[in-house]
Amino acid sequence: LNEGRPADDVFKLLNLDKEGDRLFTSPMWNTWANYVARLEKGDPDKAIYSVLKANFGKENLKIIIDKAKGNVRTKMTADNLQEEAWLSEGKTDDDIFKLLGLDRKGAEFFESPMLSAWTSYVTGLEKIKEKSDEFLVITYLENRFGDKLNLARILSTEKHRHLEPTHAVVSGLHD
After folding, report:
1. How far apart, in Å, do the first and last CA atoms of the chain sit?
2. Residue 79 shares a structural domain with residue 58
3. Cβ distance 81 to 49 under 8 Å?
4. Exposed end of the chain (fewer CB within 10 Å): N or C?
């Protein structure tokens, strides 16, 4: 770190460019990710995504991320990088809502495990704006379900159903 080596150089020095879909389980992954976090204090996920995309290409990186989502140890890393990929592609909250298939589920979308991915993305999207709207998720859902009262009814019903893994997300929206 004291030498100020670029993240890409260290990535290659640690031979992470040769790991392919075993990248996130490599013993060197955490070393490199921590290096990037200290080097790029502002937005390490963006820097990590940029290096990975440059080394593996967009399509191969997508495959690596998708595989990592299936491993409990690497899922969080994969989810963070997926969000970064969407950000770099300029995806909107509505794009991701549709991409995750939440638009086809009606009120039942609260049962989808994809709900937490969407709310996480929307929250992250808002954090990068100068004037962020902490209630954007609620506003979006109000528009989707017609009005505040209808949304409140749905949230209340879903909160009391205690469906995992969406209970925490629904409870957060309800409160």
Report:
1. 43
2. yes
3. yes
4. C
Range of the structural domain that residue 11 is part of: 7-88
d(CA 10, CA 35): 9
Rounded to 10°, the helix 167-174/148-161 angle is: 140
Q: Do both 119 and 84 map to the same domain?
A: no
77 C-beta neighbours (distance < 10 Å), count: 20
Q: For 65-121, what is each residue's pLDDT tens digit?
A: 999 999 999 999 999 999 999 999 999 889 998 998 888 766 677 777 788 888 888
* Same-domain status, 82 and 98: no
- CA 159 centroid distance within chain: 23
Question: H/E element holding 14?
Answer: none
Domain annotation covers residue 2: no
Q: Tokens standing for 73?
A: 């140890």
Peptide bond before residue 165 is cis, with ω within 30 degrees of 0? yes
Q: How many domains are contained in the chain?
A: 2
pTM for the full predicted model: 0.76
